[in-house]
Known about the structure:
Layout: H1 2-14, H2 22-39, H3 45-60, H4 78-87, H5 90-102, H6 106-110, H7 114-120, H8 123-134, H9 139-146, H10 153-162, H11 169-181, H12 183-194, H13 197-200, H14 212-229, H15 234-249, H16 253-276, H17 281-284, H18 287-317, H19 336-348, H20 355-379
Amino acid sequence: MEYIANTLNNLVHQTAFFNLTWGNYAMIVVACVFLYLAIRKGFEPLLLTPIAFGMLLVNIYPDIMLSIEESSNGVGGLLHYFYLLDEWAILPSLIFMGVGASTDFGPLIANPKSFLLGAAAQFGIYMAYFGAIFMGFNDAAAAAISIIGGADGPTSIFLASKLGQTAIMGPIAVAAYSYMSLVPIIQPPIMKLLTTEKERKIKMTQLRPVTKLEKILFPIVVTIVVCLILPTTAPLVGMLMLGNLFRESGVVRQLTDTASNALMYIVVILLGTSVGATTSAEAFLNWDTIKIVILGLVAFSFGTAAGVLFGKLMCIATKGKVNPLIGSAGVSAVPMAARVSQKVGAEADPTNFLLMHAMGPNVAGVIGTAVAAGTFMAIFGVF
């Protein structure tokens, strides 16, 4: 009888109820909210679902992220091994290859002025950098945090890893991916506040056709030019352009399909769950995390606003030929931000089609965020 009682007692004390803190329960609630937003509301479920589930797992069973050094038997937790691929900058680079393989760069080639809108939207990054320094973060940490302003999760992880900011990589990644997922909520009020109804109704002329040769040469030329100027961007820009070359060359269809589908989804699962698993209550519920989340929101909002305002400037310069709404797509959240530009424009005029015009700044924003990361790496002497 005593044996049975001891066995039952041991089993009861092995349940999570005896090991969780109030912080763990709070993070479990947050994870459930994220799952609701992903599944019920459809806010980028491909990203938010694995992130939220990783958050749920680590706060129920923290040892799932146990490092090899901390374990008693020399075997780390499952998601720790996934997370190592983030620290080694492998998964962010593979994500970029998948983005390149699944994205048409034609709108950017057809309208090179889109580069200016993409560059303007990076204002949020540099604003966040100085804001982070003002809030007490060191230079390297501020640089890692600032990339959230571009709403670019993979680049945020990549730069945090390269700058040795693994201690805050979790909050940075979660903030970046959360804002990517919440683009449909955050951007429209800013876009409507900064534009008039007349501006939102502007119809842009159809983009010129882009030849196959142009599409093939573009990733090659961009890789040569950007990587010669900033070699540190090669892992991101190089993989982005390689994926696009797979797509446009037309001779490696199997590689294109793999990079844009199977491999991309595998990487999203690994990256999403490992990023979510960095949000244990102990690591996430602190003032630094709160400051990072606030900085990210402000920076993303400023980046969106800068893109729209530069779009207004281009609208004036072209005498009403540019719809300022496409400037908001200059952040790196591709293709979500371009879809939001289309949606807000269609609300003003259902016959207005801005998606392809917005894809130009959107692709430029991806390149611009990678260049910003490379610039920070060059400044800090990291290769």
